[in-house]
Amino acid sequence: MRPGRLAGGFYAHYYGILTPDVMGTPRTIQVLAAVYIGGRGSLWGGAAAAFPLIFLMNWLRSAFSNLPGIDLILYGLLLILVMVYYPGGIAQACRWALERIGSWGKRRQTAVAGGPDHVTRSDA
Question: Which tens digit of pLDDT belongs to each residue from 59-104?
Fold first, then answer.
């Protein structure tokens, strides 16, 4: 089962019915932005992005209440930045960071063990 279907099922169960009043354009943009920023191919990325993103945007909406629609503009800018620099979202950035950390640790281990030229062969 796809995560979107599961989330939609929980959301519909919570509200009892989905109408255009409940699921308007701003709410749809929130959900899509969280999923895209988290990582389209990642299950945990969307969830990891949703909590801080929704909290931040609600705070911005209340802090800048004299500028209606500022949250939608920021969603758009954030989506553009993610599309350009991290098309895989937060999940891709975390994978990249873990690979960098892992390769750094391997390089350090080979340097301590005698370097990449230090090879032991039984037939040599």
Answer: 888 888 888 877 778 878 888 888 888 788 888 888 888 888 877 6
Cβ-based neighbour number of residue 119 at 10 Å: 8
Is 30:54 a contact under the CB 8 Å cutoff? yes
Number of Cβ within a 10 Å radius of residue 5: 9
